[in-house]
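Notebook entry, structure prediction.
Reason for the run: the old model in the group folder had no record of what sequence produced it. Starting over properly, with the input documented here first.
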Amino acid sequence: MKPEPLLCTSGANWEYQPHSSLKHILQRELKKHYKNFLLGRFDKMTLPLYLFLSGAGSGKSRNANEFHQTAISCLSTQEDKELLTRIKEAWVFFVSYENGTSLRNNEYQPYLAIGTRMLLQLLRERMNLDKIIEIYDPPSPLEVVLLLMENKDDGLNSNSQFYRTLSSIGDLLFSRIFIIPVFTSTITGPIESTLKYSHRKRVYLPVASLQPPNYRKGDSLIPVFKNDEITNTLVEDCGRHGRALEALNDCLAGRNIEECNIDTLMNDLRNNLTDMYRDAIFGSVRDARPIARVILTRRLLDLYKPVPKTDKTPDQFAGSGLIRFEQINKDSPKGYLTAPYIWLWIFVEISHEQGDPILRDWEFADYGEQRALLNPVSSLQVKSWQSFEKFVASFRCIKSAVIEEDELTTISEVHAGARLNGDIKFKNHNLQLEVARHQTDTKSKNHNGSVWDVDCYNSTIDVRRFKHCIVNAPNSPYGDAFLSLDQLENCNIKLPKRSGIVDGKAFKDYFGPFAGRAYKSALVKSKLPICNQVKNIHTTSFGQLYRVNQIRKGLFLKRPCKKIKNFHFRSSLIISQNVPTPRGDHAAVLLPTGIIIYIGGYIVVSSIDSAISMNEIQLFDTNSLSLTTRVFQNENIILYGGSAGSNLGSRVLPDLAVLDTNIWDLSIPSISQSNAPPPLTFHSAVLSHSGRITTATNLTLNGNIYIFDTANYVWVTRLNSIIPSTTSTVTTATSVISTTTS
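New structure, fully documented this time:
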């Protein structure tokens, strides 16, 4: 009889995601196990227990369900043929004390109850668990096999595949059965405590946090969730936790993510998860503040010792689900508690209901704002995450809220996860976020009285009380600035005393459940004035960077030159080979690879303007700062209009040409003059989809707009009449183009 799956939830048909190291560990340990079995080394130190230990709903049952196939897939048909054959032909029993098979009041020995549930697997089509308990004395697991092998009159067909499988088990029994016992548990600590003084060999098998799941349809893998920004945010907020992702999938059923109310959807998800974990959540609600504190301040904990200000170990909190305990290494009991955004939201809501308004000012149901943040045409909302400056200030308020008012704390606790140079002990205050009405000088000075009062939108704040975190008014020349450091290698910046930095490696550790939101708010193009945006140290002007402490002009000029925008910051730009003669009125086209093509124009020879031949094309590589003569790019450049030499009234013919930069061939296409513009020079062009919109002028101003269809090479009168017939990559070159030969 094929065993019933250990789980039947909505995610049971998702593609299995084993931990990246599971097969390697299993292959190594199964080989050792089988070798000891063949050599007759029947000892607790040589025959292991296999353990999946993880929180509720994190995937233990799925891993146990897939164990048989995982064991088969990790073995080689050539090197492990005998062991592989044994495992393929093995009888698999799934025994669970959940889903209707929990221990009954009259079952006093859990070990014998395992045998009863093995018997249930064999007889479930004829009787239920309660009937089996009523009829049979509780057997041990091996007695179940013996009972069947004695061929009792149970109506089984001796010619059936089922019976032949049991016969094989009997053969194994007489030759000392090769058994692979696999266990799952939500609690690590008690198992470790029980076994740590024992020499019993145990193999701990890792449970993976889920990537966005897929399901199989024929030979194809289909994503369970849509791959769009807002759905990715929802998935991320579930913390790669299997049961939470199942609940999200159930909530999304029948909803269009682009049209539904996202805040309502996530409120439904929060309520569903609260119901699933009700006992664990309400049993821990009084611990919400200390748990939020150790998570947000990344407190190093001991697996066997209570979390500060609670009477529970980290393992007991992790066992309830959603929260994870991440050991710093597999041999150490030290580690950190982590939790997804949705968990923090659940606990904060329940703590409000229980009278402890932790994080009362934080709007967790921010998904409408998240959608607006990811929509480039949406207006900036009042509480939008778009301002990274405001986000960081808000996050600082969160950290102050999980620490008690007036409690002594340190910079290293409040800014845990950052790279710090030095530490300070200070008295914590539960900060409130405010925004200054006016640009305010934040330099520390020896003043008394009203100079310390800051006029904010909600009230006037006395900053000497240290009760608020204030975001300065836009365009303020004072205070801190946020810098985006694009360094690819290790961030080896020498920090000033009593300062810190959050680089890429520390980002997740520092922001914890809010890391995804912090990342989005830092990357999005803000609609705030430029001085309030996150500044890129490689490209921001000296005036902007000069306001940041520790940055002086000498230091600023040493920064690496990575982009063409930085050239004017270099003290000199040395180009020694193929330097072109000075020219003017030419067109310059920047290709995506950083190559600039200079076309046309004129040079001055003996005070006379001399037109440059169209056959003479200069190429400048902005990456190597060198002038070259050939590049290979799959692009066309369309040249239109211009004048001959310095005579602006002299029309050039032909007035349209195409430069193929792949073979450096200049061609003259034959096009209809229908809807064609008059002669143009000093005009500009914008490429939109397949149409070229040209704003034009001649010797007099011209307010007309002319549209050229680059897909069909015709002039058109309406932009919406352009329907691309082919895929083209076209770059437009504009300005005065001289076609006469010098």
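Summary: The domain at 587-733 is CATH 2.120.10.80 (Neuraminidase).
The old model has been moved to the deprecated folder.
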